[in-house]
Amino acid sequence: MNKIMGKIKNLAIERMASQAIKLMGNSSDENLVRFASLLEKVAGKIDFAPRKGQVEYAKKLFKTRHPFTQWMKRIGRELNPRCRDQFTRIVLVKEHFTNQDRKDSFKEKHGFFPPTHLAISPITRCNLRCDGCWAGKYAQVPDMEMDLLEKIMFEARDEMGIHFYTITGGEPFLRKDLLDFCEKFSDCYFNIYTNGTLVTDKAIERIAKLGNVAPMFSLEGGRETTDARRGKGIYDKVIITMKKLRDKGAFFGFSITETRYNAEEVSSEAFIDEMLELGCFNGWYFQYIPIGLDPNPSLMLTPWQRDMIRRRIYKIRNTRPIFVVDFWNDGPAADGCMAAGKKYLHINCKGDIEPCVFVHFACDNIKEKSLTEALKSPFFRAIRASIPYEGNTLRACMIVDRPELLREYCRKFNAYPTHEGGETLIGVLSGAVDNYAHGVAKIFNRAWEEGDWMKLFRLGEPKEEGQEEAEVDVETWQGLSMQK
């Protein structure tokens, strides 16, 4: 009976939230605050106390008229009904509220919480060959069999309560069964990282109807920068596809590989404004790591550039209605590194269970062990146990912030490189990575000690009627990081 009542309660919450997001599209800021107050009361009455803090936080965002509020309005106004309902039900509600019981049950049984999401690369094939591709050295093996892919999903969803997935490659849209797979698991949400060249009109129609697929288009900046790395005409193809998805009311975003040569461009307000105009709802920033195809440390950001991007991402997130995340610099938002199942892990096309998509080492394979068994491995347990490193979550990464740890984990647990040449990261490239980590430490240790960081949003006082949106005062944050 309790399970039945729980399902009824969760269904009611999901439906209420979906309807609320729909109404948000054209609601006044005052009505949004009233809605948050109502939601706060409902949360208390239906024994939803564990997540009450998140509701209170949302209320503060509404009261201060934070750009996140405008982003939520965009969800309600610009997405078609199916895409809006699926995003609301799965990403906003199920992942953060109604699915907690299953995660609690997993913890009670195994002694730790399961990951919140999973990254899977079911393909290594790609129709492009981009310089420095992180996945470019994986062996060109056959695509992951659908039976194995479904086995992973059944364990992750049904036993761990994971409903949010990242699909990468290779180029995922080379798989003809990709959207069939997403349709089969319609109660899960899929961020699909793609170069955008194979997202056909037929695929666009289907994405708009499914509602649980969010393409993330890889760009290097504008036309000149993107085409220089990816090939002539690629940028224009991506932009055309974005416009078509926008017109269909689908959720999509962009993905950036930050290098020493595009850091200024991709973190500029002009670039973000262009992405907003094209209809992007979110954006992911990943700094170049010397792995994969022809690893080149000279492409890495300088420590100063990394800090510059961190500050710019803060400003963008607090001044524009788009949700941008920096995989490295947003360590404080994730309470440190997410790897090894603390928040996520990666399964490559061969089935190797890697701590992170950028850590190409493994001790287990999904063909031989379950996800749960891999999470219990000494390799993964040791990584999780050391997070957060010294408490400073600005330096959250064991690859480029604490490289001595990655080398120690691989040595101690005899982790094998998952592709030819993978060992160079902890071998011949160690000197370059250590120098980078040393430079980052100088800047980020000071920033951490001075409280010069934030998790996601900076909340100010409620604005008076007619008051302009206050920009985040980046100039006062410069300090050591701005000294080249």
Q: Care to describe what's here?
A:
The strands form 2 sheets. Strands 7-6-5-4-3-2-1-8-9 form a 9-stranded mixed sheet. It has a two-stranded antiparallel ribbon with strand order 10-11. It is globular and about 60 Å long. It has helices spanning about 1-25, 30-45, 50-65, 65-80, 80-100, 100-110, 145-160, 180-185, 200-210, 225-230, 235-245, 265, 270-280, 305-320, 370-375, 380-385, 405-410, 430-450, and strands spanning about 115-120, 165, 190-195, 215-220, 255-260, 280-285, 325, 345, 355, 360, 415. Residues about 460-484 have low confidence and may be disordered. Helix 1 packs across helix 5, helix 2 packs antiparallel against helix 3 and helix 14 (about 305-320) packs across helix 18 (about 430-450). Helix 7 links the parallel strand 1 (about 115-120) and strand 2 (about 165). The N and C termini lie far apart (about 65 Å). It is of the alpha/beta class and about 475 residues long.
